[in-house]
Amino acid sequence: MSESAKPHHPSPQGKGEKSHGGDFSYVGIDAILEQMRRKAMKQGFELNLMVVGQSGLGKSTLMNTLFKSKVSRNKSVQSNPEERIPKTVEIKSISHDIEEKGVRMKLTVIDTPGFGDQINNENCWQPIMKFINDQYEAYLQEEININRKKRIPDSRVHCCIYFIPPTGHCLRPLDVEFMRRLSKVVNIVPVIAKADTLTLEERDSFKQTIREELRANGIDVYPQKEFDEDAEDRMINDKIREMIPFAVVGSDQEYQVNGKRLLGRKTKWGTIEVENIAHCEFAYLRDLLIRTHMQNIKDITGSIHYETYRVRRLNESNGKIHPINHVPL
Amino acid sequence: MASSDVARQPDKGARPLSLAGHVGFDSLPDQLVNKSISQGFCFNILCIGETGIGKSTLMDTLFNTNFENFESSHFEPQVKLRAQTYDLQESNVRLRLTVVNTVGFGDQMNKQESYQPVVDYIDKQFETYLQEELKIKRSLHNYHDSRVHACLYFISPSGHSLKSLDLVTMKKLDSKVNIIPVIAKADTISKSELHKFKIKIMSELVSNGVQIYQFPLDDETVAKVNTTMNGHLPFAVVGSTEEVCVGNKMVKARQYPWGVVQVENEHHCDFVKLREMLICVNMEDLREQTHTRHYELYRRCKLEEMGFKDTDPECKPVSLQQTYEAKRQEFLAELQKREDEMRQVFVQRVKEKEAELKEAERELQGRFEQLKRLHAEEKAALEEKKRLLDIDLTSFGNRKTAAALLQPPGFTVNGKKDKDRKNSGFM
Q: What is the reported pLDDT for B153?
């Protein structure tokens, strides 16, 4: 059987104009984009977001603001005070089906009540690490089945939003420890919560300090420098890296500002508009997470973090799960 | 064989929620498409048909380029496959197209094994993908997918029915690849004959249980056009890269003394339908069917063949790990046994050799002793002889002196008297 795989570069005579019938220089290869879009719309998307931070930092409110609906129930609604702070870190995952302009998405928000709330917070990241690794494990088991499902349900955590309390000083040891361990297994997006307590100068210097501390500790948050694909990507991502961590304010209540109804927080000294980039950086976070980089976040989770887990898992059982590598065919 | 890609149902436990404003994730399909554009696409077509039926010409016409191809001879001893890869680009879409042609199909006198090289090729592509997928360190997103996505089967335009070679080949391939049958050189059949021919072909395929590729009907936007096209299978095509002036336009056509067959005229042949179905409407579905149906089937069969199961005889889920462990022990035990055997054989041989050597040594020693003895004996004999000789010499010497004393003094000068003396001395 002779095979010659020399890639050639003949191009269809006449680049495609999109007219049918009569224009025979058009082959129709670019119709595959439309086909892909149709297939994606039909299948729907999945997104799993995890929010981590001490209680009271506004995690649920931020989720509700991001997705403009009640994706998380507000903890302060709970009436029973003894139940408010769990003894250990719990993992609570709630799924919603949302739809916008024909695009259906299954959004799962994973909440971590109890994180950082105890007096002794050593190892409070362990339940979270275990949860993330469990999701990878479930996916791996599905993948190595003989009879596989048509579409393996993706419950892997795509992005972890870490809430930094707005102290204005520097990162706390808990923050550094957590981010250091988790940046290796999941995409972390750090945000400064309740940023309306910081003035602009304080905010900038706080961000500077945080960035330096992240660099000093070798913590690689999303977008990671090493996964930039080309120069254009690097340029866009560098701009983002200049701005992280985003200083956000969340709100799900609308107020009247200048004749328009906007989401904001009303105080005696003024109204903070959530979506105004002069007030806070919520809009940048939303754009990064949802409008521009969502697919990229999912890709990095699938092709890098998951693969790293898989390699480690397979190596530690000495290739026991892998028949092909050792048993003679 | 309609594609059964089920639209995702809302999962249990996921509550539907309505959004109060514009969030912005409707750009997700665009993000996905952009990523695919930067990655590029790949598509692999396999063309099976007899030599000279027009496979290469049809490929040229379909993709509007001139692929490198040359006429093959009719005297190939075996069916071979020739794969060529090309990089095409249209607007911003880059496509890596691999065209695999059969060489010598249908030319042999004995065509019983004609389908085998094709099946082997398709299986080999699946195998390479499976190997890559099972590697520990793998790079699936960079992987050049060489699995065959579509198979165009060229039926020769006899006008009667399918040949038995066609039926046998298609039956072997229908579970491995998406088959799209086309009637080649359709300008040799008249319209009414063509209609009857198509019906005959389809009924033969159905009665023989050959599952050809059906265009998918589950997406409303294309369901209607796909249903119509399903009714036109197999497509009767004419291929040509030459251009002829018709009216005031240059069109791709074949010129005959009795007229001009225009390739892109829907009344003349089904070429436009084929192009639309294969490329413009269903390319993605073809790729998906290959991956989710044909490849999964291959993978399942291959892994089961090697002894892996999802559930053991008691129907409890068996992890791949347990099965693998068992196999591994078995294999290691086998290795150990063989090693022991070899060691035994080796020890045996060494012993034998040692015994042989000892034997030889002993023999040599014996010979040496013997020689030594001989030598000593001869030496003793020689000594004896020497001694006797010495005795003789001394006795002779004694007698000589005695005789000299006994001689009178006068007899020494005269010769005669000497003679007498000599004579008397020696008696």
A: 92
Q: Which residue of B has its CA nearest to A95?
A: B14
Residue B231 covered by a domain:
yes
- A203, A205, A210, A213: CA torsion to nearest 10: -170
Of A250, A65, A249, the closest CA to residue B19 belongs to: A65
Round to whole Å and give the CA distance between B136 and B158: 52
Task: Please identify among residues 147-206 of chain B the ones whose CB lies closer than 8 Å to any CB of chain A.
Answer: none
CATH number of the domain residue B196 falls in: 3.40.50.300
**DSSP classification of residue A293:** S
* Residue of B111, B158, B125 whose CA lies nearest to B46: B125
Evaluate whether residue B185 is within a structural domain: yes
Domains recognised in chain A with CATH numbers:
40-251+278-315 (3.40.50.300)
Lowest-confidence pick of A16-20, A61-65, B264-268, B322-326: A16-20
H helix or E strand, kind and range, residue A212: helix A200-216
pLDDT confidence of residue B349: 95
> What are the pLDDT digits (tens) for A200-255?
888 889 999 999 998 898 888 888 888 777 788 888 888 888 888 888 888 878 88
Determine the Cα–Cα distance for residues B283 and B133; give it in Å rounded to an integer.
23
Q: To probe the interface with B, which of A25, A29, A297 has the most B CB atoms within 10 Å?
A: A29
In the numeric block, the tokens 């892909």 are attached to A36
Report the sign of the C-alpha dihedral through residues B403, B408, B414, B418, in that order: negative
- Residue pair A196/A150 in contact (Cβ under 8 Å)? The answer is no
Residue B18 at interface with chain A, using a CB cutoff of 8 Å = yes
On whether the CB atoms of residues B284 and B41 are closer than 8 A, the answer is: no
B6 to chain A, closest Cα gap in Å: 8
Pairing status of strand B93-103 against strand B80-90? antiparallel
CA distance A317 to A319: 5
The answer to whether residues B294 and B380 belong to one domain is no
The residue written with tokens 């080949």 in the block is B169
Same domain (yes/no): B248, B190: yes
Strands laid side by side in the A254-257 sheet: A254-257, A260-267, A270-273
Q: Which residues form the domain of B101?
A: 37-306
| CA separation for the pair B96, B256 (Å, rounded) | 35
Residue of A nearest to B332 (CA): A327
Global ipTM: 0.78
Q: Which residue of B has its CA nearest to A313?
A: B136
Q: Select the more confidently predicted residue: B54 or B416.
A: B54
Co-location of B298 and B227 in the same domain: yes
The residue among A229, A230, A239 whose CA lies nearest residue A288 is A239
Residue B71 phi/psi, 5-degree rounding, is -70, 140
| Residue in the structure block whose two tokens are 């009216």 | B247
Q: What is the pTM of this model?
A: 0.74
